[in-house]
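[retry 2/3] citrate synthase (unknown stereospecificity): previous attempt timed out, resubmitting with same input.
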Amino acid sequence: MEPKNKATWLTLEDVQDYLGVRAQTIYAYVSRGLIASHPDPQNIRRSLYSAENIQKLKQKKQQGRKRETLAANTLFGTEPSIPTAISTFARGRLYYRGKDAVNFAKEATLEETARLLWDAETLEAFSIQERDYPPCPPDRTHAFVALAAATATGHSTHGRTPRVLHAEAARLVGHLASTFGAENNPSLLIHQRLAKGWGKEKDVADILRKAMVLLADHELTSSAFATRIAASNGASLPACLLTGLATFTGPLHGDATPRVKALLDEVERSSAEQVVNRYLSSALPIPGFGHHLYPDGDPRATALLEEFEPPDEIARFIEKVTTLTGLYPNIDAVLAALVTRYRLQGDAAFALFSVARSVGLLAHAMEQINTCKVIRPRGRYIGPDLNEPVNGRS
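[retry 2/3] citrate synthase (unknown stereospecificity): success.
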């Protein structure tokens, strides 16, 4: 029922019908001064309520619902909600600050990528970290322990200049690479240090360079958003990076490659034919193929696949899946194929991905710091009714 006149005074039943709430809620509105009331001249035992106040209250509630809907769609929909100049997608391509990432990766190093994404005029080399553990294959345990220790003693980002933050970020990337077994040689670039530390210097160094540049950022991913939340609250750079990489470990995000690697191991043990038939006959999605942002194929995967030949059976598997499903291999599949081709040990896929992506995560942290805004979404309560009395009245 719509009040016909703003001067109208409504009964309790009319208000309940119009607002769709219980009597106790209306009494609470009156006690908070949101709705004016006075005794009904026809029956002093009941009250009448201001139609004007009630109309304004309903309009406010409707606007709130619109904001809630917008917030829910922004957080859980497909469109980014945070302005960023770091990277974006257009016409099926990835761009770093306006530069086509695939073209940039042809010659760029991860150090040059950091300078671009961090918008730094100059940048110190990624530092080395003396190990307090023996050299070993890539292992994320060392990485997370080291980042947690740095977080415990890290300084807030508030009141610190970009130059100082860039220098600390460079040290963090270098430290992270060291924990994954990179050679501790300050004269080498990060891809050379990793290749040498993994005993693959001659074979694989330049491919690791290109892979890491292609993996450095991918717009507002879950890990980038988590990193930005930490940064918006003034957390230290190690804390921001740890937050992002913890999110990155999810199998639906940066840790998808081990699933694909297990699949490729199965292909090598049996055959491409058997594995493809088993998945398709069971209506199972094949890990590592297709990408919702790149319906015509992941350009990062295509560019990296140009740099090496996968083992024969894996090459047949990729061709067969593409032919039968129409889906192209994504960066997870090609990274797993690279690790298999060069027999990289331990957690090499995760190591490559996380060292590279740490550059992007730190870029998001520092960009968020410059906005001077705290990311604090509101919850949309869907729990039981709130039956507690207001101001002692029921």
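[retry 2/3] citrate synthase (unknown stereospecificity): The longest strand covers residues 43-50.
[retry 2/3] clearing retry counter.
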